[in-house]
């Protein structure tokens, strides 16, 4: 972190997830637990002073894998008490939190804590997860919604587009299911507990944690949501922004167009690209050939620039030129 700061790179620090506190024996929703959380927040903002330009309190409350077992009300409290503890000591750094998309329930419970926020952030990945099209205008809608809802400047803290991934054929899917000991997806769904037990250990642990070991939740989580993409190591046919295929060129075109679009949003104070480098395996399922969490980078795993690297470079240079001249985009 000091190396980045010394090089003039601004650092946005993210405070720990709630499970890192509970693993240390802290009971999140107890008076003593809240006291410890406040103390840790105070320590972090003082320990990182002069190294950090901004703070994001935890990450994406609302996405099950990041939130469980907290309720949304508990998640908001967990965020809020840290904001309250850090706000008077932030100095020149900005302080806020983020959500996965609009997350109206989180925003509702966060109302008492907006006064401790220099910004409210969100993360958005259109056309990359669910089996339905994504659209560029959704970035505009959510930015304006959150600004109207919170009254705070808005920061897009994660956005990006996958540069690889395609639908699997029926035969390819059948072969994958057979590899787990079942003849068809229907058979796997009818025997979902056994199916989960047959999955690789990394996947099995993830499913059980997110479902909180509730076997009745396995079916919906594994086969009726975006985790299905991990089972088949695919991006379904409709999972894209129309006109932007999941290819290196499609990724580059996305950045070329979206960066200019985001710049026009007056209530948006910044945006952070996810991410710099491709991954050698998916952090959700652990598979090396799963496109969902392996091909987000502007450079490949060998740090060779992809077309998106040059698209981002040129788009930011254009914005800098416009900003310096104080002229709007035509």
- Report the radius of gyration as a whole number of Å: 21 Å
Shape: globular
What is the straight-line distance between the termini?
38 Å
Biggest beta sheet attributes = 6 strands, parallel
Secondary structure tally, helices: 15
CATH architecture of the largest domain: Alpha-Beta Barrel
Strand order of the largest sheet: 1-2-3-4-5-6
What is the element string, with H for helices and E for strands?
Answer: HEHHEHHEHEHEHHHHHHHEH
- At the fold tier of CATH, the topology name of the largest domain is TIM Barrel
Low-confidence stretches are: none
For the record, the count of structural domains works out to 2
Keywords:
single chain, 330 residues, alpha/beta, TIM Barrel, 2 domains, six-stranded parallel sheet, 15 helices, 11% strand, globular
Written description of the protein model:
The protein is an alpha/beta fold and 330 residues long. The protein has 15 helices and six strands. It has a six-stranded parallel β-sheet. It has two domains: 2-163 and 240-325, Glycosidases (TIM Barrel), CATH 3.20.20.80; 170-232, no CATH class.
Question: TL;DR?
Answer:
The chain contains 15 helices and 6 strands. It has 330 residues and is an alpha/beta fold.
Secondary-structure blueprint:
Elements: H1 2-6, E1 12-14, H2 18-22, H3 31-47, E2 54-61, H4 64-67, H5 72-86, E3 94-100, H6 104-109, E4 119-124, H7 137-150, E5 154-159, H8 170-179, H9 185-190, H10 192-198, H11 201-210, H12 218-223, H13 228-232, H14 248-263, E6 268-273, H15 307-325
């Amino acid at each position: 972190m000091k190396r980045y700061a010394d090089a003039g790179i601004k650092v946005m620090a993210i405070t720990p997830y709630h499970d890192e506190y509970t693993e240390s024996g802290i009971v999140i929703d107890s008076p003593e637990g809240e006291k410890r959380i406040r103390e840790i927040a105070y320590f972090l903002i003082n320990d990182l002073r002069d190294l950090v330009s901004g703070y994001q309190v935890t990450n994406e409350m609302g996405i099950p894998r990041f939130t469980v077992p907290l309720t949304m009300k508990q998640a908001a409290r967990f965020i809020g008490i840290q904001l309250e503890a850090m706000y008077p000591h932030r100095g020149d750094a900005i302080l806020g939190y983020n959500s996965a998309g609009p997350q109206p329930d989180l925003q509702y419970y966060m109302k008492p804590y907006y006064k401790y926020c220099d910004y409210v952030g969100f993360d958005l990945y259109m056309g990359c997860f669910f089996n339905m099209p994504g659209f560029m205008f959704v970035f505009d809608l959510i930015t304006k919604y959150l600004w109207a809802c919170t009254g705070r400047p808005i920061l897009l803290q994660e956005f990006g587009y996958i540069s690889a991934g395609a639908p699997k054929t029926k035969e390819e899917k059948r072969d994958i299911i057979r590899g787990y000991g079942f003849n068809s997806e229907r058979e796997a769904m009818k025997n979902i507990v056994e199916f989960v037990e047959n999955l690789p250990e990394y996947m099995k642990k993830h499913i059980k944690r997110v479902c909180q070991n509730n076997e009745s939740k396995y079916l919906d989580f594994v086969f009726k949501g975006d985790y299905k993409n991990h089972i088949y190591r695919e991006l379904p046919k409709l999972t894209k922004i129309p006109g932007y295929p999941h290819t290196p060129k499609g990724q580059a075109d996305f950045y070329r167009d979206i960066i200019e679009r985001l710049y026009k949003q007056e209530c948006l104070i910044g945006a952070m690209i996810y991410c710099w480098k491709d991954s050698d395996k998916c952090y959700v399922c652990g598979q090396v050939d799963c496109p969902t969490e392996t091909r987000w980078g502007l450079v490949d795993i060998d740090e060779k620039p992809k077309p998106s690297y040059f698209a981002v470079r040129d788009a930011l240079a254009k914005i800098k030129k416009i900003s310096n001249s104080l002229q709007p985009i035509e």
